[in-house]
Structures are given as C-alpha cells and as structure tokens.
Amino acid sequence: MQRPQIRQEFISPSDGNWRPSMTDKHAIQDVLSQYVRATDERDGDAQARLFADNGMIRFFGRSGTEEYQLAGEPVIGAERIRRHMKEFFPPRPERTYQHHITTDHLIRVNGAEATMNAQFLVFSSVAARKPEDGWQAPPGVKGDITLIMIGYYDSDLRKIDGVWKLTRLDVQHSLPVFMG
Amino acid sequence: MQRPQIRQEFISPSDGNWRPSMTDKHAIQDVLSQYVRATDERDGDAQARLFADNGMIRFFGRSGTEEYQLAGEPVIGAERIRRHMKEFFPPRPERTYQHHITTDHLIRVNGAEATMNAQFLVFSSVAARKPEDGWQAPPGVKGDITLIMIGYYDSDLRKIDGVWKLTRLDVQHSLPVFMG
Amino acid sequence: MQRPQIRQEFISPSDGNWRPSMTDKHAIQDVLSQYVRATDERDGDAQARLFADNGMIRFFGRSGTEEYQLAGEPVIGAERIRRHMKEFFPPRPERTYQHHITTDHLIRVNGAEATMNAQFLVFSSVAARKPEDGWQAPPGVKGDITLIMIGYYDSDLRKIDGVWKLTRLDVQHSLPVFMG
Fold it and tell me: Do residue A9 and residue C9 have CB atoms under 8 angstroms apart?
C-alpha cells in the first residue's frame, strides 16, 4: 500500500477514542523542562511566562504516606509567581548552584486541557574554595553535591493560543515542609 | 470528517525501512513510568496490570562489571506479580517514602514487539519526627533523602489488544543483591 | 497540494514556521541516551560513532554561577574522541560501576540542524567485598552509591545521511574541574 508522504501524528481509530498528539505531549513535557531551568536560574520572568494568567503554584509536604499538608499560601497569578521567585527564594549562597530534575512524566491530553505528573529531585552543588596556590591533586570535580528535596510535580495545563500553559502546579514534597 | 482507518505516524521512506511509531514509543515509556508509580505506591494490582499474563520479573545484581547474578526466583505470571508486592516488599517503615526514577530510555519497536532499556535509581525519604512544640528553624524540608539502589531496567513488551504489556522485566542492580 | 484536515506531526503552517518532527526529537534524545551508555561501558568506538567526523567534546567547570572555565583541551574529531576514552578515563577501580543519567531535554530542530540541552548526573556504585562465608543480613543491595558529578550537556547536532550526529557536546559541570 502506498503511504502518503506527509507524516500524520494521530488519527481517530475506529473505537472513537482520541489519542493525544505527540506534538502536544512533547510541548507539555517541555513546559516542565523549562520550569526547572527557570527555577535554577532564579528567573521569575521566565517562570511566570509558563503559567496562564490565573495560574497557580502550591507547595505541599508530608511524612511517609500521610496526607499532604499545604505549606504557606498558594501563589496565584502570573504576576505573583513572577515576584515569588525574588521574595521567597533566598539569594544563592556563594559557590552554590542547584539543579531541579524531573523524570517519569505521565501526560494525559484531552483537547486543549492536559494533566502532567512527574517525579522531581533537587540537588545542591557547592564548589570547594580554590586554594591560593591552585587546585591540588587528585584531578576531578572540586566540591560537594547534596540531594536536598524530592517529590512529585502534579499539574494541569491549558493550550492558550497554541501554547501550553500551566494552570496549576502542585509541588508535592515527600518530606514535611516547614515554611518558617 | 472521516478519519483514515490506519494509524500513520510515520511513513515508509523509499529505502523500505520501517520507523517506529512515536505513539508506540510514548506508550511504551509510559509503561515504565506507571511501573515505578505502582512500585512506590506498593500497588501489586496496578503493577500486575502492566504485564502480559505470562509476564515475568527477574532480579539481578553484580559487582562492578562482573556477570549479573540472578537473585531469588523469577516472578512469573501476572498473578504471582500481584502477590509478590505484598510478600516481598516489607511494610514501609514509619515516616518513609520511596521514589523509583527512570531515565535514558532506549526503545526499539518492531511491529507488536518492543524492547526498552532504561536506567533506574531508588531514593528513600525519611521524615524527621515533628517536635512536640512544632518544627524549628531553619525553614525547609525536614528529613533525610538517601540513594539506595541503582541499575538498569531491561525489558521486552508486546502489544496486546492495542495495549503495550511487559513480557519480561529484568531489574539489573549495579550492586550485588542478597536475598537473605 | 490540498492537505488533509487532520493534525500532522510536522507541517509548514500558515505562519511559515517549521515545527520539529517528533521522530527527529526522539532520535535526537536517543543520541544522548546512547552517549551515556557508551560512556558507562567505556566504549570509545560506540561513543565516536555518535559524532560527526569533525565533532567535538569540550569540558567546562564553574563555581556557583560564575563563568564556565574550559578544562583541558577540546577533543576534536571522531578519531580523537575514540581514543580519548582510553587515554582520559582511568580503568575502573575494582567492584565499581558508573551511571551517567540525563533528564529534562530541551530539543530544538531546524531542518537538518538541532540543539539539545539536558541535565546530567553521574553516580558511582561500589560493591562491598563479599565476605568469605557469604553475604550477611540484612537482605538488600550490598555496597555504596555516591553522586559524584552534575551539570548540563549542551550540544549541537546535524542530520547526516538520515542519522543525527553530534557536532558539539559541551559537558558543563556545576563544580570546578581540575584536570591535574
């Protein structure tokens, strides 16, 4: 059978169930990859752009398999999300960087609405102070890396003007969270 | 609008080589994301549903780059997999949760058969005991996170009634495994 | 040619912007998954095959958010990459394996050119020595796992004869790198 030359990403099979577009799935997962970059770069503007105008971030913690406890107030609206980065995240200590990583994305798309659940971990890398007479043996990386947070990102997204935006991002820590 | 009956996600280029369907690749990777959720939730039913009736899980360990050693008996059949979770996994210690994460999935599809190899890590998060007078400074997450296992998931899958199911899942630890 | 109404995995929409092919995105991410396998298996041949003839690997380190510092000389050309593995990577210590993992891939495709940025972590797993009278309680894995490196892989790729190859891979450590 001669197949058409253009690629088609999904069809409606005879059982009537829509299958999500692979372009949508990639675009949705991309939002989270951009979110962690914005977070690690402490870029509130970039982070806010990933949210719908009335989008929301909420933080939760829990002990073991107990109920999640809301920590602090939900951050509601792109403007508050933009400012939240400046106000809530302390300046990075010197010689320090952080990496938020995400894995195992479960993405479900229904037209212009979607959900995405992923696992996240946060690592802190602190460089050693460089000695006055330069680095000493042995060769390699100089500093310490610590795993400091772990949990799930649970989210809803909406496709607005062709671009997927977060309407809800719940940061569900797998440890209790104390806001201070 | 009438949609074509056959899925075309990819075309048959002039060189005659089939390229795997992207919908298939997403669905296959999804199986592993669901497997780790079921494992972390200690849900033997959810885990068993990801396997073909005669599906199998085997556990291996090794030291360095030596040969993998089979640890314990293979768990064969969806029913035994369902029970295996209850019998083999001890109840979680208090204040404890685990996260199995997977990365770097190499997926090869050939019609209704597929292979998937991924890296896995397992983390244990243990919440601190909450003091009687509440959490104390500093703010943040309260507890410890430990990396406890690492290795490869190597698997075969078959598409049964339109759904990808595991026929073989080898858990290849990069440390020796002692079954006790 | 009249295009069908259904979604196509890549099209040239009326705004003139090409959208990347999902097959391309999978193939590009696959290159990094294969790169980490080749690295962990110390397979210089497999690693070199992922690069264009004039491909290049460069290593960088930094402290906190300071500028990246080039560490050592760029490794230029598939032949030098093939040899680099033998010459630069010391033989694995006994009972030791390493896992390079990658996450959060941001892939942009423009025809036969692409960029890919991902996060990476490197873990070292060292098996315990097996006691003369065999492993002792408790059951489980026997050895230690340590997180030893973290950063970003930043890369360019080109599609050559239908296969995506790395033309540039920058290993951007989030710690200072001392080459010795």
Answer: yes
